[in-house]
Amino acid sequence: MTLRVRPISREEHLAFVTARPSVSHMQVPSWGEVKPDWRAESLGWFEEGGRRPVGAGLVLLRPLPKLRRYLAYLPEGPVIDWHAPDLDRWLAPLLAWLRSRGAFSVKMGPPVVVRRWSAEAVKEAIADPAARRLRDVPATEEEPGASQVADRLRGMGWRQAEPGGEDGFAAGQPRYVFQVPLAGRTLDDVRRGLNQQWRRNVKKAEKAGVKVVRGGYGDLPAFYALYTETAERDRFLPRPLPYFQRMWTALTAEHPDRMRLYLAYHDGEVLAAATMLTVGTHVWYSYGASSARRREVQPNNAIQWRMLSDAHALGAAVYDLRGITDTLEDTDHLLGLLRFKVGTGGHAAEYLGEWDFPLNRLLHKALNLYMSHR
Description:
Blueprint: E1 3-7, H1 10-18, H2 31-34, E2 39-47, E3 55-63, E4 70-74, H3 88-100, E5 103-108, E6 113-118, H4 119-127, E7 141-142, H5 144-156, E8 159-160, E9 176-181, H6 187-193, H7 196-208, E10 211-215, H8 220-234, H9 241-254, E11 259-266, E12 269-279, E13 282-290, H10 299-313, E14 318-323, H11 335-342, E15 347-351, E16 355-358, H12 361-372
Parallel strand pairs: 4-5, 13-14
Antiparallel strand pairs: 1-2, 2-3, 3-4, 5-16, 6-7, 6-15, 8-16, 9-14, 9-15, 10-11, 11-12, 12-13
Helix pairs in contact: 7-10
């Protein structure tokens, strides 16, 4: 049976998302409002005669200057049956629709896990001087269906984006993430899963009087002050404050618990802050920020433990700490962040990564050339 793709209303899209255990926070209708430089459309997949979508996706359209041509991007989506043997039945009508809208290239991120490494396996790899990249370390667990999905995509003409630069991060969404499974575990189980240093630091923060509280829209400037300090220290380009204000307004309007802000106080001063996103049973640690002052009271461990605890109380199946470097060398400035996340006792996961389909090869090549020189 053929499938057809057409625009759906925000209400239809949200109903589709709500009926599933979870989808990426970048595939909910409100995410389009976070990206004002892109035009967002909600698309649905329908069977012949069907009135309710059997698949959905948020597509972001970025116009080329002076041309009515667009880059179409479906971050961590669309939400379709990725393991269907007839995957082309799902993707061909998507390409046809986007071509009709003036798209010259399509980028998407299949939400398909390829393999996982336990915390212990990652820890051993970091300690092994011969191990240079996580991707070259034998996995603890492999998902056999993922390679078949990749083969089908290549057979249709999709091209896999590079896994990342020297730091292991892809140009779009992270291919390697660190996650803490929560389903079927008590909070005591989760605490016991933390490594010894993590448990010690959580206790140290409690003893020092660190208080973690939930903030609101009015606390975003306090978060942002720490965020810009973190950006300078960790050498990344910070987003502007209006980005986070827009994110808060859009996401919480869709669902009051879609986005949360946490702040860690010590002696009346904010020492760390973090944002948390929730869609269904999946919770993400989204953005983090901290001061270099009074790090001995361990505000970062305190804030993460509060977020983990709250995610568990919400009934989350997974707490996702998002991107990690796959570079294991001591010279990598991101290795400390990997060590911090490994201490939660979860696992590293590799996703299928992002894939491109050039609808106009000349414009697609020009875009790649431009991006490589940015």
